[in-house]
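User: Let's play a game. I give you a shape written as tokens, and you guess the letters that built it. Ready? Here's round one.
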């Protein structure tokens, strides 16, 4: 791209994956992250085979496997009887079927792998977006009174995306009346719990109530995720503490093996869950969105991080060949029309799949009894055909 720059607002999983992929095609990239640095916050990231395939193509596979766990199975069980309703073999079987295993990893370990794959200076910390002037080139203003001009703007800034607001106005999410709890416990406390090395989902008496568990850190820790109805907790943040006593009380009628998971918890985080409808479009001019900025999902299919990485790969592929035009002197800049066409191809390739997962996650019945996992797990972002440069694909679910 010569002197042209792609700017990514947001240094999360999708934004960093996009930076790596774009640099692989020779682009100059700047990542603007509002945090002052990356801390070891958060807990789990469930990377199903489609996500691992995308990350393997970025050259991160060996690094991720150093700390990740590999769930043996994906199991569904009933909350009261413990009856197993479905069992999908993962690990080596998934690798043979899909070309990649399922990996469960601490978010900080994944961010560290992504960060280390980028040269110093690509990620600029402390850059909270204050305003955007859109045009053939986008002018970004930050709270620290600095600014930047970019030829392509990518909003990878999460559920509360400032870039999305600049492109399409304020969002209007709907509170589901459901809250979620998250905790991490040492696996040694769970001796005697069957299939502790598997990804297990305990389906509750209603679609809003469940417990999910899977291994982290090569199996030395176990992640616990639970949801339940509650109308009076509306905080959408994964840094707010919850009550372990409340957590255990909510699931007191569950099977003893499920309750044992909660009995092992010392502390828990709690967040309200909101839903958003699929956006009719992701791009405006030379600016676009990826990941939670354009398709935030309920967590019930565990595809939030995976679809963000898929977006990053497909977007980089769509932007891999851009036309340039001569500017002042010997420099050249990207042709805005070729950017617009590339972003249309990106949307055309991605919107139908992400909308289907977004709405399927809301329905929360995927793989409860049985079902087809291949349409999710077998997806290869490096090989999926790109859409035409014209109208983006309709959202059919």
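Assistant: Ready! My guess for every position:
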């Amino acid at each position: 791209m010569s002197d042209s720059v792609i700017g990514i607002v947001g240094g999360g999983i999708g934004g960093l994956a996009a930076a790596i992929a774009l640099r692989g095609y020779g682009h100059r990239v700047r990542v603007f992250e509002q945090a002052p640095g990356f801390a070891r916050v958060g807990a789990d990231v469930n990377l199903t085979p489609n996500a691992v395939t995308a990350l393997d193509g970025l050259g991160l596979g060996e690094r991720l496997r150093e700390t990740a766990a590999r769930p043996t199975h994906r199991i569904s069980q009933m909350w009261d009887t413990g009856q197993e309703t479905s069992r999908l073999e993962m690990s080596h079987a998934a690798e043979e079927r899909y070309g990649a295993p399922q990996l469960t990893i601490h978010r900080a370990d994944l961010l560290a792998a992504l960060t280390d794959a980028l040269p110093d200076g690509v990620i600029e910390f402390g850059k909270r977006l204050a305003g955007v002037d859109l045009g053939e080139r986008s002018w970004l203003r930050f709270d620290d009174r600095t600014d930047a001009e970019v030829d392509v703007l990518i909003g990878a800034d999460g559920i509360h995306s400032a870039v999305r607001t600049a492109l399409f106005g304020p969002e209007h999410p709907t509170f589901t009346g459901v809250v979620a709890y998250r905790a991490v416990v040492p696996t040694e406390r769970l001796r005697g719990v069957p299939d502790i090395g598997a990804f297990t989902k305990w389906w509750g008496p209603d679609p809003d109530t469940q417990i999910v568990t899977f291994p982290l850190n090569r199996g030395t820790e176990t992640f616990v995720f639970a949801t339940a109805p509650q109308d009076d907790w509306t905080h959408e943040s994964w840094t707010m503490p919850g009550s372990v006593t409340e957590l255990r009380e909510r699931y007191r009628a569950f099977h003893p093996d499920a309750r044992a998971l909660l009995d092992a918890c010392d502390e828990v985080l709690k967040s309200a869950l909101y839903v958003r409808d699929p956006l009719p479009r992701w791009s405006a001019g030379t600016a676009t969105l990826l990941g939670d900025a354009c398709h935030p999902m309920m967590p019930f299919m565990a595809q939030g991080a995976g679809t963000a990485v898929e977006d990053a790969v497909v977007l980089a592929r769509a932007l891999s060949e851009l036309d340039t035009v001569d500017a002042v002197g010997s420099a050249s800049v990207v042709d805005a029309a070729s950017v617009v066409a590339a972003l249309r191809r990106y949307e055309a390739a991605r919107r139908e799949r992400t909308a289907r997962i977004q709405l399927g996650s809301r329905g929360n019945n995927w793989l409860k009894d049985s079902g087809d996992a291949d349409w999710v797990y077998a997806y290869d972002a490096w090989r999926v055909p790109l859409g035409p440069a014209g109208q983006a694909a309709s959202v059919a679910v």
